[in-house]
Amino acid sequence: MKYYIAYGSNLNTEQMRWRCPTARKLTVGEIKDYRLEFRGKKESAVATIVPSKGNVVPVLVWKIERSDEKALDRYEGFPYLYRKESIKIEADGKSLTAMAYVMNEGYDIGMPSDYNLNTILEGYEEAGFDTNILMEAVALSENLYQEENMEMDL
C-alpha cells in the first residue's frame, strides 16, 4: 500500500474507480505553499502543482496498491510528462507524506479542455473543496495564455 495525492482529474471518484479499482479514499487535505496550474498543450492542458508561497492546493489522499500505481503511471505519462514526488501535506490536523505526480519542466501554460475541467470540478464538488481555487487556476491560465498570444501577434 502507498499513499497517493490527487489534486486534478483523479479527485473524481468515478474516474478513479474505473482506473484504479482497488484504490480507497483515505482523507482530504491540502498542500501548503503550492498552487494549481494547467500546463501542456495550449488548448488541452492538464493540471499540475507548482511552488507558490502563501497558496494552498486541496487534495484527496488515496491508498493505492501496486496495480493502481502502474495504471496511474500510464495515465499520467510517467516518467515523460509527470515525475513522482513525495510531498508533505496537512490532513486531519496532522502532517502526512505521500506520492504526487508533478509535471516535468518545459511545458507551457495552457487552457484545460472543457471535459478535463468538468472532471476536476466534479471531484472538487464531491470532496467539498472550494471551487474558487480551481477557477483561479483557470483564470491564471487564461490570462497567461492570452498574454502569450498577444505577444505572438506583435
TrEMBL record:
The lineage, from the top, is: Bacteria, Bacillati, Bacillota, Clostridia, Lachnospirales
Q: Example GO molecular function term?
A: gamma-glutamylcyclotransferase activity
Kindly name one Pfam family recorded for this protein.
Answer: GGACT
User: What are the record keywords, sorted?
Assistant: Lyase, Transferase
Its domain of life reads Bacteria
The name this protein carries in UniProt is Gamma-glutamyl cyclotransferase, AIG2-like
Where substrate is bound, by residue? Y4, I5, A6, Y7, G8, S9
Q: Which CDD domains match?
A: GGCT_like
Q: Which InterPro entries match?
A: AIG2-like_dom, G-Glutamylcylcotransferase, GGCT-like, GGCT-like_sf
Q: Which residues form the active site?
A: E76
Which residues are in the Gamma-glutamylcyclotransferase AIG2-like domain?
5-105
